[in-house]
Amino acid sequence: MLKISFESFQIPKKGALAVALSSKLSLGKDAKSVDKATHGQIQSYLERKNSKDKLEGPEVVTHAPGIGDVSKIIIFAPQENLVELGGKVAGALLSEKQASISLEGWSAKDAAQLAFGIGLRTWKFDKYLTKEDDRRKLKSITIMVDNPKEAEKAYTEYANILEGVNLTKEVVSEPANVIYPESLAKIAKTLGKHGVKVEIFTQKELHKKGFNAMVGVAQGSVNEARLVVLQWNGGKKSDKPVCIVGKGVTFDSGGISIKPSSKMEEMKWDMGGSGVVLGLLKAIALNKVKANVVGIMGLVENMPSGSAQRPGDIVTSLSGKTIEVINTDAEGRLVLADCLWYAQDRFKPKAMVDLATLTGAVIVALGYRYAGLFSNDPKLLKQIESSSKKVGEKVWNLPLDEEFAKALKADQADIKNSDYGVGAGTITAAQFLECFVNDTPWVHLDIAGTAWASKSSSSFEKGATAFGVRLLYQWIEENYTH
Ligand code: BES
Ligand code: MN
Ligand code: ZN
Q1: How far apart are CA 318 and CA 332, in angstroms?
Q2: Cα–Cα distance list, 461 to 50, 367, 369, 391 (Å)
Q3: Could you identify the atom of ligand 1 that is nearest to the CA of residue 269?
Q4: Could you read off the pLDDT of 400-418 as tens digits, one per residue?
Q5: Nearest Cα to 2, choosing from 149, 166, 153, 128?
Q6: From the CA of 151, how far away is ligand 3's center (Å)?
């Protein structure tokens, strides 16, 4: 893993060197001393540039600085979003083993944000790559600031969030032969050492409690279902918690309504929602956030077999509502039906948020950078939208409407899980979930498009994005701490 340390300025002897200029591209005293050591290469680079007062992003000034074994010099200018800038700077340093970054005149908080962005961009799921060349090269970064002690202190909170984000990325990236309900529950259990209360319910226990919609999905797999309940009690005793519920389908083959083979391998990350719950609770616990937060992970594997659920089966959900299973591939809503009902019934939360890689249709509607956002509560909706803007994990509000709710009506049960004939697959799925939240202020995030990326960005290597961890951390920190 990447090691980030904070030190005072000193011209490095090896690795790459990135130098922050002022927003007008002027050089401070430290930048000038680097320039001098390179015999003026930074200044002459700036003079040669066409647009004199602007950088496109981090730019390489020279691959031959002539300073010891320093491999190259990069310059960059501040921008509004320093986490994003950190990711861009890291992107320019990935080919190096080690690097130094000079942030002359920066505040501790700003330096910490840049460091956070670097951490986000640098993580890579490379544990199964046996050739050194294929693995992440960048191992250590020295950030040079005016007050290293203060910067390090400011970075602690971000470093803890980063640990949560990285845990999410890791479990989402792991294949389904490694991550299945039991093994993921076991990982969740390790949060106990950070002060999280962890409960794990087995399939047998869930069956007994009446989680029939959820267990119905799991019944075709040799890997039995698990429900994980994570409780962080950092708030006042009398405060009702917020509940975060995650879809955790550790592999979604579609079941008897089996999916086509093309891209089926992607369905190993159908537990992305639960992955976010896990990482978020880790971040919250490490930072000892002063709020009461409950995380619920509904873990199943959706497989076809002789014991699998059939299209046409009718199940009585935990809420008492009966569901006709038209399509066994619309399994996420069946899992969440019971988990959402359980969460509101047991914890009476102030607010409940679920995250789910729920529908392919959300990708048609919003693509790969916006999550679909639904809510039954305008105030809560505003909170989430505002936190979303702050961290740059984008959401787009879609409507809930009686018109869509009508389409859920089944002939032989209270509702059906698919075959609505009204289009809008993302909305009908959300509408289905709403039947199980019982007046609790609730937000649903459909992260099917955003949980996994085929292209790298400033905050992730292509693959798992951990979309939602930073958003919900920000939301809780801002609205529910005392
Ligand atoms: N896990 C899928 C949704 C999904 C699709 C996530 C593509 C990421 C990428 C979900 O369980 C599913 O299969 N949904 C169906 C619902 C349909 C059968 C009503 C879908 O979207 O096609
Ligand atoms: Mn499915
Ligand atoms: Zn699914």
Answers
A1: 15
A2: 32, 18, 14, 17
A3: 8
A4: 999 999 999 999 999 999 9
A5: 166
A6: 42
